[in-house]
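2 proteins. here.
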Amino acid sequence: MRISRREKSGGDGWLLALLVVASFVLITLYFRQGEGGALSSARESFHAALAPVGRAGQAATSPVRAVGSWVSDLTVSRADLETLRDQNAQLRQRLAELEEARLENERLRELVGFVQARELDALGARVIGRPSTSWEAVIVIDRGRADGVEAGMPVLAASGLIGQVIEAAENSARVRLITDQRSGVAAILQSTRAEGVVRGSIDGALSLDFVSRETTVTVGDVVLTSGMGGVYPRGLLVGEVADVQVEDADLFPRIRVRGAATLTGLEEVVVLLSPPADTPAGGGE
């Protein structure tokens, strides 16, 4: 037999009314009986029976609640996250600046030690211009005539000779490196005192030319400035012999030289304002 929606709705209403009346009756009896009544005792017994179940539920959910509390502590707002990112970027920038300052101080200490050890009258300078073409190995420094720099003055790094001033402006100067194809440095081999000329090339390689065939040249021999011509002081380190080849038809041995100074990435140099007292006088090379 089918029951209409209207009949079902009427039955639900009677049940709700019955439950409401029962609730009022129980509440009235509870307040009239007080704490010592039967209803109060039944409530306490019910709570006592459910207490172990509640404790077990708390114990079971305790790890979950602990994890939730830990995760909530880890969460930060978007503004806090952006602040932390900005602070991290600032710290990274500061660290890079400090590292750059440390490296610069090390290079400057080497230059100062080099000048003091040889008692040279020298002026420190920074490289502000690199070679503009592959045909000419010329750099620009931030010292010029206002600082006493003139054309012809040698330019050094802490590790050895790098070149010569070829043009001086008021506050800058152009320096031709020894690797330039038009460069020539009067030099000697430290071991045999044999003389020659260190020349640059279009590809930046160094060679020691015009050394006598009778001279015994060994890979690793130190090459120094000879002081001949009066352009470069005697005894400055130029480099060392990297390779030697002697052919029957050659008038001179082919000697390749490895420069002592690293010219790539050069940042600080010293300009030799006047030669040491023991440098022999002479004309140009």
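next one coming up
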Amino acid sequence: MTDLPLLALERAAQPAPGQQPWLLVLMHGVGSNEQDLFGLVPFVPPQFHVLSLRAPFAMGPNAHAWFQFTVDPDGTRHIHAAQEQRSRALAAQTVQSACAQLGIGADRTVAAGFSQGGIMALSLLLTQPALLRAAMCWHSRLLPEALPQQAPDDAFTGKSLWVSHGSHDNVIALTSAHAIRSHVQRLPLQLSYHEYPGMHEIRPDELQASMQWLQQLSEMS
């Protein structure tokens, strides 16, 4: 069991002979906890050591958030910026600590998340790409508050990003995924963008495709 800044559930990697281990760091959505995305573990390629993190801010019993936010009647969102910065710093420290303890380099590390957790994964990649090889964002959005800290364009060379969204997402609109796509298309990273005919949920075919993407990513190195 690794000793980390954030509480986490974990599954050890079981790489094939001659195969190097990878690290997958999962971050749940608002109001959930580390048990949520840990349920995806049976589908994650075995060469990945999986950490499913608990967000640091408690909302209630077994309900946590990376940051609090409000939504105006017109849909405009306002986040608790200090909480987001604190959570992003803790996530970065957790990734660095896990890599050091497991002996897995940043070039074999992926941050992934659903909804608000995906926001964190994307923000971590955009602001500290040296910590990651790639990020996966399920049903998330671009965080304008993090963009002033975005790394220089050339820092994204060799990085990869998975973005998937539901065409009928009733929590985070599909236009949010379009905004991510527009923003990162000018960066020198490999974008894999997908839309699925669902709502605010990871569909079975979406999960299967994203796990295949992870597998292919690990085979590229």
